[in-house]
């Protein structure tokens, strides 16, 4: 419950920034570039979670974890590798114009779109530990896919799981 409330507070802070009339700029490889490393978790120049893919194809742990978590819970509707389905839109397209706060809000609280005689509903995952404990991981995986740095399929190589990831997982999952 605490994490859901924290996510709701984050959504209230970040969501107005995205709907204030300013168009969200498209994410690019340059904007997504990792400039800071905090125990294996990478951040872009604005302090948002991002990915790090080495020249040999090795992805950081969080991107690999995001791939795994996405394919455990999200691909059922949004298709493999974020390419969409007849049921839900391709996230590799929508992520290009979606900031981190909006992503958190939509995943935690859900969203309902009605138009053209069609209703689309994204359920809330704010109480699903298999999703909310790994929101940053899912975000960085989808971000890497959206800007074209991560190819389709399971990453061929991954970095070792950092202690910070182990600690966060134990804390969030209650272990």
Automatic annotation (TrEMBL):
The keyword Ligase is annotated on this UniProt entry: no
Signal peptide start-end: 1-25
Region (Disordered): 150-175
Keywords: Heme, Iron, Metal-binding, Plasmid, Signal
Basic and acidic residues bias (residue ranges): 157-175
Limits of the Cytochrome c domain: 65-129
Coiled coil regions in record: none
UniProt GO MF annotations: electron transfer activity; heme binding; metal ion binding
Name the record gives this protein: C-type cytochrome, methanol metabolism-related
């Amino acid at each position: 419950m605490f994490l859901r409330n924290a996510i709701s507070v984050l959504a209230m802070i970040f969501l107005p920034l995205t709907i204030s009339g300013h168009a969200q700029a498209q994410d690019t490889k340059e904007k997504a570039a990792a400039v800071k490393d905090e125990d294996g978790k990478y951040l872009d120049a604005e302090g948002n979670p991002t990915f790090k893919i080495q020249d040999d194809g090795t992805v950081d742990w969080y991107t690999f974890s995001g791939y795994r978590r996405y394919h455990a819970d999200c691909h059922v509707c949004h298709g493999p590798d974020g390419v969409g389905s007849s049921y839900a839109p391709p996230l590799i397209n929508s992520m290009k114009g979606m900031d981190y706060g909006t992503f958190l809000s939509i995943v935690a609280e859900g969203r309902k779109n009605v138009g053209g005689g069609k209703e689309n509903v994204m359920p809330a995952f704010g109480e699903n530990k298999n999703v909310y404990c790994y929101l940053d991981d899912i975000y960085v995986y989808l971000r890497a896919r959206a800007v074209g740095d991560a190819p389709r399929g399971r990453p061929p190589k991954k970095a070792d799981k950092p202690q910070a990831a182990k600690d966060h997982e134990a804390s969030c999952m209650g272990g």
